[in-house]
Automatic annotation (TrEMBL):
<protein>
    <recommendedName>
        <fullName>Peptidase M15A C-terminal domain-containing protein</fullName>
    </recommendedName>
</protein>
Amino acid sequence: MRPESRRIPARTTEALLMLSAILFAKPTFAMGNELARVADTHALLKSPTPVAVKKGVVLHGLDAKMHTAIHKAGRIWMRHGKVLVVTSGLDGRHKKGSLHYAGLAVDLRSRYFAPSICKKVTHELQRSLGGEFQVIREKHHIHVEYDP
Ligand SMILES: [Zn+2]
């Protein structure tokens, strides 16, 4: 059997697909490194844009609009050299009546951005999502909710 005809385990295939997605999207070495580091501790979403989800975060029950928002955010984060990490969905403790509990809000990692970049990223995401979404820069993350 020729080595290249060996069956590749599903997990490896997924990783390869993810890597090729990144290469197609933007072939930067730094991004590959970043993703490898993130993939160590986070789940990766199947997406043309690399998006990671922090361990313990619940996205099941998330509104489809929020998935779209996550993918748009992923592209913006990537433009700024970071892999987007979703740090909260339907999990966690939020204030009473929070849209998180309705599957209409997510928190996105921002701690790796310098303050000026974080501000820029927030504006870019707000512009990309439009007026039906609210993008709020919090101390440790960027909160995004669908609130038409
Ligand atoms: Zn939030």
